[in-house]
UniProtKB/TrEMBL annotation:
<dbReference type="GO" id="GO:1990023">
    <property type="term" value="C:mitotic spindle midzone"/>
</dbReference>
<dbReference type="GO" id="GO:0051256">
    <property type="term" value="P:mitotic spindle midzone assembly"/>
</dbReference>
<dbReference type="GO" id="GO:0008017">
    <property type="term" value="F:microtubule binding"/>
</dbReference>
<dbReference type="GO" id="GO:0005737">
    <property type="term" value="C:cytoplasm"/>
</dbReference>
<dbReference type="Pfam" id="PF03999">
    <property type="entry name" value="MAP65_ASE1"/>
</dbReference>
<protein>
    <submittedName>
        <fullName>PRC1 regulator</fullName>
    </submittedName>
</protein>
<dbReference type="InterPro" id="IPR007145">
    <property type="entry name" value="MAP65_Ase1_PRC1"/>
</dbReference>
């Protein structure tokens, strides 16, 4: 009888612990469903109390992992966002860092970053192409970079150059100014060559003398 009483007491204690664990798990699941923006969890009432407690605990573990994974992905996306915003001088994506993001939020964030990455690559290509042309024009015009922006364009590491819309616009403006100077110089040279030829004709300068000057 004593052994039976002890066994019954143990079983009742186990049942009490299981019921308490079930209540705690259900409370955690309600919180996790709200945080993960999921429909409320409906536990199956069939089966033993032991099986129900095990199912609820397993479900809590699965949802906690989902929560950790989403928070970790959000952190990773925000790091990428900061890097891109530093390069492009844009504002960070608007999202609550403290809340658990929904799957839709993460998908929107990923698409936003993909768009920024594409924009960065396009601006980088434009910068590299314009920089190459600017260097050639400066060499042709015997022009030494004399402003901080010109020095940044010509001398600074390409990866460090800020690809903001203002900088890209300033880059195009610099390129147009140098092209205009070259066009002006070419026009002046053409005019001077014409005057030289006219003077050669009037002065009847020999062909040999003309050829010695032609290299210039």
């Amino acid at each position: 009888q004593s052994l039976l009483d002890m066994m019954v007491a143990e079983e009742e204690s186990l049942k009490e612990r299981l019921l308490k664990s079930i209540a705690i798990c259900r409370k955690e699941l309600d919180t996790l469903c709200r945080e993960l923006q999921l429909d409320p969890f409906e536990a199956e009432e069939e089966g033993t109390i032991l099986q129900m407690e095990k199912n609820l605990r397993t479900r809590v573990e699965v949802m906690l992992k989902q929560k950790r994974d989403r928070k970790q992905e959000l952190k990773t996306l925000q790091e990428q966002d900061r890097d891109l915003c530093d390069i492009l001088c844009t504002t960070l994506f608007c999202i609550d860092s403290n809340a658990v993001p929904s799957l839709e939020d993460l998908d929107r964030y990923r698409r936003h970053l993909a768009s920024l990455t594409t924009e960065k690559e396009q601006r980088r290509e434009e910068f590299v192409s314009s920089k190459r042309q600017i260097i050639l024009l400066m060499e042709e015009l015997d022009h030494t970079p004399d402003t901080s922006f010109e020095r940044d364009v010509v001398c600074e590491d390409e990866e460090a150059f800020c690809l903001s819309t203002d900088n890209i616009a300033a880059l195009q403006n610099l390129l147009q100014q140098l092209e205009a100077r070259r066009s002006l110089n070419e026009a002046v040279c053409t005019e001077l060559r014409s005057r030289i030829v006219a003077l050669w004709e009037r002065l009847q300068v020999p062909v040999e003398e003309r050829e010695s000057s032609a290299v210039h």
